[in-house]
C-alpha cells in the first residue's frame, strides 16, 4: 500500500473549519467514547491521523466522516481539547468539495465572497425570468380576485410555467448531485482495490438509502441530550420533504386559485411543514448563536448562509400565502418573486455544492460502507 | 541600561483586595523613581479607551511601560499593541509581577517595591536581592511527616542538630505507609519505612509534633519565629499504653484516612498499628462528646486514670528555627470529577489508592479483593465478608492526568504503580485476566523499562488506547476502548475497574505558601528557586522544598530531594551563615545597587 503525503491538506482543511486537531496525541479516547464506532469503522482518531499526515487520497476514499452525527462526546472528553468532532465536520465539508468535480463547492466553502456573489447572481437571473414570464397585477385589484376573494395566482404566474422551471432546476441539480455521487462511489468503492463488491451486495443494501434519508436512524444510538437535537432535525427534514414534494411534484394541486378551507390537506400540510421548518430554524439558529452544543460551537459561513436563506424562503412563502388568501394581488406577486429569488439560489448552491448535499451523501455513504463491509466479510 | 528611557507604570490591582496590598503606597513609591513620568491604573485605561492612552503616551513622550501587579501578564499584549500604535518599540513593555517572586501578601510590600524598581531600571531582580548573609539558628523546622519529611529530619538529626517535625495527622508515615510494595524492586514498603519512623520517634534530636499545624512564620532567613498549633489529641501521649480498650468501646465510626476510606475506624483511634507515636487520639470532628457533650465511654474503659482528657484544649507553641523544609506531600485526584468512568456510581470501580489498601495484608480485608458494599449506616466499605475473585480486571491509566480538562501534567508515577498493581493482582489471583489501558507507557527510571517488560511477560494484557468509559449494561460492567495497535474496538466485560488516579498538590499548599511567603505554580506545587541549579531552594532564604509538594515524583526521587534539602540546611549550619535573599530596600539602596551593577 502506498500513500502520498500532501503538505497542503492541513492549511486547506483550516478553511473548512477544523480547529486544533494537531493537538491530538492519539490516545484513542474519542474513538472509544463515540457511540457509533465499531471494528469496521474506527473514527474519529483515524481520520485525524489521515489529516495530520496529509493523506488526501485516503481522505477522499474515506467514508467515516459521514458516519459521524456530531454528538460532540469526543470533543467534550478529548484530553487534548483537539476538537475531533469539529474535524469530522470539517472533513465532511472537505469531502463535499472533493466529490464535486465542478469546483464550485470548493469556492463556496473557501470564499465567503464567492458564496455571496453566487447568491446575488442567481437571484437576479431568477428575477429576470420571473418578470419576463409573468404578468404584474396592474389596474383594478378586483379583476385579479376569484369568487372566494383569493388572488387568482395562476393568472399572474401560471403553475405550468413555474412547474417547468422547477423541473428544469431539479433536473440540473440532480445532474450535479448524481455525478458527484458517482464520483464519491468511484473513490470509495471502485478505487479501493482491497475489496470486490458484487451486484448482489448493491441490491441487499438498497433499503438503507430511503431508511437513512428519512429517519437519520443512526443517531438514535447517541445519548438522550443528543436526541432532542436530532428529533428537531427530523422535523426539519419532514417539513422540507413535504414542501418539496408538494411544490416540485404537485404544483397544480398546491398552487390553486381557489382558497381551500383551513383543514384542506393542501393548507394543513403546508402549515404543518411551515411550523416544522420554523421550529427547526429557530432551534438551530439559537444553538449556533449561543454555542450551546459541541456541534454548534464553531460555525462556518456556509452554516449561517444556509440558516438565513432557509428562514427567508419559509418566511416569504408563508407571507405570500397570506397575501393570496387575503386577496392582495400586488403583494402576492412581489412576495412570490422574493420567495423565488431566495429559494432558487438556496437550492442551487446548497443542494449539490454545499451543506444540503449531506442529505444525499450521508445515506449513500452508509450504503457504500454497508456493501463494502459485506464484501469484506465474504473475504 | 538605557538611561534615556521615559517610563510609564501601569498598575493592575486585580486580586489585591484579597491580599490587603496597599497599592497607593506602591504608586507613591513608583512616582519617586527616577525616569518614571506617569502612573495609571489599568481600569482607567480600559475605561477611557485605547485612543486616550495612545495620546497620553505620545504627549508624555513615554517609550517604555512597566505593568505592575500580582499577576499583570494578562495586559501585556494589549499594551504592546498600544506601544506599537504609538510608534514605539512594542518590546519595551515590562512586567513587574509580584507573584513571580512570591510577593503576594501585605507583608511583602517592600519586596513588591523592589520588583517595580527592577522592572523600571531593567535590572535582574534575582541579582539585586542577593544581599548579604545572616547568622543561623541551628534548629530546623520540617513541615510534613511523609517519607520526604522523615528522611530530611533523620539526615539533620544525624548531625546532632535539633529538628522540629510538624505533622498534620496523628502519625508520621504519609502515603508511603499505605503502600504494600514499591516499584520497580517490589520491596516491602513498610520494611523500608517503619524502621525510619521508629527512629524518628526515638531520636533525641527530633521533636515530633503530630496533629499540629504551622500557623504563622515571622523573621528572616536564619532566624524564623514559628507559631505552631498543637491540636488537642485528648489522649495523653505520656500515659496512653496503646491498649485499645477505648476504641473497642467507642460507638462512633468514620472512614479511616489511612485505609483510604476502605474501612471504618472509631472516633478514638490509632491511625494504624505501626503509627508513630504509637498512641491513640480523638477525632474531634466526629467524637460524640466533643460534638454534643454527651458520651465519655472511652474514659470509663481506659485502664490508665487521667489518660483521656475529653476537654483538652488546643495549644499554641512558639519555636525559633534557622531553616524550614516544606514536605507536605500531595493528595490524589478525585475520580468523581470524570463521570464517564463511573467512580462513585458503580461500586466495582475503585481507585488505585483503594486497591493499594485492599491488596495490602494490613488492609481492611487482609490482602484479599472484596466487593464494596454499603453498611447499615450507609458507609461504602470493603468488608472481609465480601471477598471474591474478580475474573477480569481493567486498570485505566491517566485518570485526571495529561488531560486539559483536569490536570495537564503527567503524574509520573501512575504508569509504574499500575504495573506494580497488575503484578500484585496476578500474584494473588492467578487465573484472573488483568488489562492495562494506557496512552503512553512512561517507564522513565532506572530499572523501570525492565520492570515493564517483566510485567508484560507475566501475562498482563497491555493495551495502547485510553479507555473512554465504564458502563453498566444489564449486570455487566463494560470498559470501552480503542485498541490502537490492533485496530479494533474493545468492549471488555470486567468485574473490577481500577482507576490510576493522578497526583495533585495538597489542599494546604496555598495556605502554607502564604504563611511562608513562598510561591506555588499554576498547579499548586511549590516553585523552586531554580529547577536545575538550586532545585530544593525557594525564593525565600532558609526555606526549602522536598518531595511531592514540589511536583509529581516517585519515592526514590522524594527521598533524594529530602536529603538534598537537608544538605542545604546543614551547609548553612556548618557555615553559620545563610544567604538572606533580602528583599526589602530603600529606594536609594536599590538604585545604588542597580547603578553599580
Ligand atoms: S481523544 Fe483527542 S487526543 Fe485522544 S485520540 Fe481523540 S482527538 Fe486525539
Ligand atoms: S461527534 Fe459524536 S458521532 Fe461524531 S465522532 Fe465524535 S463521538 Fe462520534
Ligand atoms: S467520648 Fe465517646 S465518641 Fe468520643 S472518643 Fe470517647 S467513646 Fe468515642
Ligand atoms: S505516569 Fe503514566 S498514567 Fe500517570 S499520568 Fe503519566 S502517563 Fe499517565
Question: How would you describe this protein?
Answer:
The complex is a heterodimer of chains A (379) and B (597). Chain A is mainly alpha-helical and 379 residues long. Chain A folds into 2 domains: 9-99, Orthogonal Bundle (Fumarate Reductase Iron-sulfur Protein, Chain B, domain 2), CATH 1.10.1060.10; 104-378, no CATH class. In chain A, 67% of the residues lie in helices and 0% in strands. Chain A has 18 helices and no strands. In chain A, helix 12 packs across helix 18 (358-378) and helix 16 (301-325) runs antiparallel to helix 17. The longest helix of chain A is centred in the middle third of the chain and has 32 residues, at 159-190. Chain B folds into 4 domains: 7-131 and 586-595, 3-Layer(aba) Sandwich (Rossmann fold); 140-231 and 314-329 and 506-579, FAD/NAD(P)-binding domain (3-Layer(bba) Sandwich), CATH 3.50.50; 232-313, no CATH class; 333-504, FAD/NAD(P)-binding domain (3-Layer(bba) Sandwich), CATH 3.50.50.60. In chain B, the strands form 11 sheets. A 5-stranded parallel beta sheet of chain B has the order 10-7-6-18-31, covered by helices on one side. In chain B, strands 20-29-23-24-25 form a 5-stranded parallel beta sheet. In chain B, helix 13 (352-359) runs parallel beside helix 14. Chain B is globular and about 80 Å long. The A-B interface holds A 25-33, 37-39, 42, 45, 77-81 and B 340, 398, 402-405, 439-440, 464-469, 480-484, 487-490. Residues 397-398, 401-402, 410-415, 439-440, 442, 500, 502 of chain B line the site of one iron/sulfur cluster (SF4).
Provide the low-confidence segments of chain B as ranges.
none
Mean pLDDT score of chain A:
91
pLDDT averaged residue by residue of chain B: 92
Low-confidence stretches of chain A: none
Helix content of chain A: 55-70%
End-to-end distance of chain B: 10 Å
Using only C-alpha atoms, the radius of gyration of chain A works out to 23 Å
State the separation between the terminal residues of chain A, measured CA to CA: 18 Å
CATH fold group of the largest domain in chain B: FAD/NAD(P)-binding domain
Q: Over all CA atoms, what is the radius of gyration of chain B?
A: 28 Å
Which outline of chain B best applies? globular
Q: How many separate domains make up the residues of chain A?
A: 2
**Main sheet attributes: strand count, strand direction, barrel closure of chain A:** none
Strand content of chain B is 25-35%
Helix and strand pattern of chain A = HHHHHHHHHHHHHHHHHH
Helix content of chain B: 25-40%
Q: Tell me about the biggest sheet of chain B? A: 5 strands, parallel
| Residue fraction in strands of chain A | under 5%
Amino acid at each position: 500500500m502506498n500513500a502520498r503525503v500532501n503538505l497542503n491538506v492541513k492549511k486547506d482543511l483550516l478553511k473548512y473549519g477544523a480547529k486544533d486537531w494537531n493537538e491530538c496525541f492519539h490516545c484513542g479516547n474519542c474513538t472509544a467514547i463515540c457511540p457509533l464506532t465499531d471494528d469496521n469503522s474506527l473514527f474519529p482518531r483515524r481520520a485525524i491521523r489521515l489529516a495530520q499526515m496529509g493523506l488526501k487520497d485516503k481522505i477522499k476514499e474515506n467514508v467515516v466522516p459521514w458516519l459521524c452525527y456530531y454528538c460532540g462526546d469526543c470533543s467534550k472528553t478529548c484530553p487534548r481539547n483537539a476538537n475531533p468532532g469539529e474535524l469530522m465536520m470539517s472533513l465532511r465539508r472537505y469531502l463535499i468539495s472533493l466529490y464535486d468535480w465542478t469546483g464550485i463547492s470548493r469556492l463556496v466553502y473557501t470564499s465567503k465572497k464567492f458564496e455571496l456573489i453566487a447568491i446575488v447572481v442567481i437571484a437576479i437571473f431568477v428575477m429576470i425570468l420571473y418578470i419576463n414570464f409573468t404578468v404584474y397585477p396592474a389596474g383594478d385589484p378586483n379583476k385579479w380576485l376569484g369568487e372566494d376573494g383569493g388572488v387568482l395566482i395562476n393568472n399572474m404566474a401560471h403553475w405550468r410555467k413555474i412547474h417547468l422551471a422547477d423541473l428544469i432546476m431539479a433536473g440540473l441539480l440532480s445532474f450535479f448531485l448524481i455525478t458527484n455521487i458517482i464520483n464519491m462511489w468511484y473513490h470509495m468503492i471502485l478505487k479501493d482495490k482491497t475489496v470486490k463488491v458484487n451486484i448482489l451486495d448493491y441490491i441487499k443494501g438498497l433499503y438503507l438509502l430511503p431508511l437513512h434519508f428519512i429517519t437519520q436512524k443512526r443517531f438514535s444510538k447517541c445519548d438522550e441530550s443528543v436526541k432532542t437535537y436530532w428529533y428537531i432535525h427530523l422535523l426539519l427534514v419532514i417539513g422540507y420533504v413535504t414542501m418539496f414534494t408538494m411544490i416540485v411534484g404537485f404544483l397544480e394541486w398546491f398552487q390553486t386559485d381557489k382558497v381551500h378551507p383551513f383543514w384542506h390537506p393542501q393548507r394543513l400540510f403546508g402549515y404543518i411543514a411551515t411550523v416544522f421548518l420554523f421550529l427547526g430554524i429557530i432551534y438551530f439558529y439559537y444553538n449556533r448563536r449561543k454555542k450551546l452544543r459541541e456541534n454548534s460551537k464553531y460555525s462556518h459561513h456556509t452554516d449561517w448562509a444556509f440558516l438565513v436563506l432557509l428562514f427567508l424562503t419559509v418566511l416569504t412563502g408563508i407571507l405570500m400565502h397570506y397575501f393570496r388568501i387575503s386577496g392582495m394581488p400586488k403583494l402576492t406577486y412581489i412576495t412570490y418573486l422574493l420567495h423565488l429569488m431566495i429559494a432558487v439560489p438556496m437550492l442551487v448552491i446548497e443542494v449539490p455544492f454545499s451543506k444540503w448535499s449531506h442529505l444525499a451523501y450521508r445515506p449513500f455513504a452508509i450504503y457504500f460502507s454497508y456493501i463494502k463491509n459485506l464484501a469484506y466479510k465474504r473475504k | 541600561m538605557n538611561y534615556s528611557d521615559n517610563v510609564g507604570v501601569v498598575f493592575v490591582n486585580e486580586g489585591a483586595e484579597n491580599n490587603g496590598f496597599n497599592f497607593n503606597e506602591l504608586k507613591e513609591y513608583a512616582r519617586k523613581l527616577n525616569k518614571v513620568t506617569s502612573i495609571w491604573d489599568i481600569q482607567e485605561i480600559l475605561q477611557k479607551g485605547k485612543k486616550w492612552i495612545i495620546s497620553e503616551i505620545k504627549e508624555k513622550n513615554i517609550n517604555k511601560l512597566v505593568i505592575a501587579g500580582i499577576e499583570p501578564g494578562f495586559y501585556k499584549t494589549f499594551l504592546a499593541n498600544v506601544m506599537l500604535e504609538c510608534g514605539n518599540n512594542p518590546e519595551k513593555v515590562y512586567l513587574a509581577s509580584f507573584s513571580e517572586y512570591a510577593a503576594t501578601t501585605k507583608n511583602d510590600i517592600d519586596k513588591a517595591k523592589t520588583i517595580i524598581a527592577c522592572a523600571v531600571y531593567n535590572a535582574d531582580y534575582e541579582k539585586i536581592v542577593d544581599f548579604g548573609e545572616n547568622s543561623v539558628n541551628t534548629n530546623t523546622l520540617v513541615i510534613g511527616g511523609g517519607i520526604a519529611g522523615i528522611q530530611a529530619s533523620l539526615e539533620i538529626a544525624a548531625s546532632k542538630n535539633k529538628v522540629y517535625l510538624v505533622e498534620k495527622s496523628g502519625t508520621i508515615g504519609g502515603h508511603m505507609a499505605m503502600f504494600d510494595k514499591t516499584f520497580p524492586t517490589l520491596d516491602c514498603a513498610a520494611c523500608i519505612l517503619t524502621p525510619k519512623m521508629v527512629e524518628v520517634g526515638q531520636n533525641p534530636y527530633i521533636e515530633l509534633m503530630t496533629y499540629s499545624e504551622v500557623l504563622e512564620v515571622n523573621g528572616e532567613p536564619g532566624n524564623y519565629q514559628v507559631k505552631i498549633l498543637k491540636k488537642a489529641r485528648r489522649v495523653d501521649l505520656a500515659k496512653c499504653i496503646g491498649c485499645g480498650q477505648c476504641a473497642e468501646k467507642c460507638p462512633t465510626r468514620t472512614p479511616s484516612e489511612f485505609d483510604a476510606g476502605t474501612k471504618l475506624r472509631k472516633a478514638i483511634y490509632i491511625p494504624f498499628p505501626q503509627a508513630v507515636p504509637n498512641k491513640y487520639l480523638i477525632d474531634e470532628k466526629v467524637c460524640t462528646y466533643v460534638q454534643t457533650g454527651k458520651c465519655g465511654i472511652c474514659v470509663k474503659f481506659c485502664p490508665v486514670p487521667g489518660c483521656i482528657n475529653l476537654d483538652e484544649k488546643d495549644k499554641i507553641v512558639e519555636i525559633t528555627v534557622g531553616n524550614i523544609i516544606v514536605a507536605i506531600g500531595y493528595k490524589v485526584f478525585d475520580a468523581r470529577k470524570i463521570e464517564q468512568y463511573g467512580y462513585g456510581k458503580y461500586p466495582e470501580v475503585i481507585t488505585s489508592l483503594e486497591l493499594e489498601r485492599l491488596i495490602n495484608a494490613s488492609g481492611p480485608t487482609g490482602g484479599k479483593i472484596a466487593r464494596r458494599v454499603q453498611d447499615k449506616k450507609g458507609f461504602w466499605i470493603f468488608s472481609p465478608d465480601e471477598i471474591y475473585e474478580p475474573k477480569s480486571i481493567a486498570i485505566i491509566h491517566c485518570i485526571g492526568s495529561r488531560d486539559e480538562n483536569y490536570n495537564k501534567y503527567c503524574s509520573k508515577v501512575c504508569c509504574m504503580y499500575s504495573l506494580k498493581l497488575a503484578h500484585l493482582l496476578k500474584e494473588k489471583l492467578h487465573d484472573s485476566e488483568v488489562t492495562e489501558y494506557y496512552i503512553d507507557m512512561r517507564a522513565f527510571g532506572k530499572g523501570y523499562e525492565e520492570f515493564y517488560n517483566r510485567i508484560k511477560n507475566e501475562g498482563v494484557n497491555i493495551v495502547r488506547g485510553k479507555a473512554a468509559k465504564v458502563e453498566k449494561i444489564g449486570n455487566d460492567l463494560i470498559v470501552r476502548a480503542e485498541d490502537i495497535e490492533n485496530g479494533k474496538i474493545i468492549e471488555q466485560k470486567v468485574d473490577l475497574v481500577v482507576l490510576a488516579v493522578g497526583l495533585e498538590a495538597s489542599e494546604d499548599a496555598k495556605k502554607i505558601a502564604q504563611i511562608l511567603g513562598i510561591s506555588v505554580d499554576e498547579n499548586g506545587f511549590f516553585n523552586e528557586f531554580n529547577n536545575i541549579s538550586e532545585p530544593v531552594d525557594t525564593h525565600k532564604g532558609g526555606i526549602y522544598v522536598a518531595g511531592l509538594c514540589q511536583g509529581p515524583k516517585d519515592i526514590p526521587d522524594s527521598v533524594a530531594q529530602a536529603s538534598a534539602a537537608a544538605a542545604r540546611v546543614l551547609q548553612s549550619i556548618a557555615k553559620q551563615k545563610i544567604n538572606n535573599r533580602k528583599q526589602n530596600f530603600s529606594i536609594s539602596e536599590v538604585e545604588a545597587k542597580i547603578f553599580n551593577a
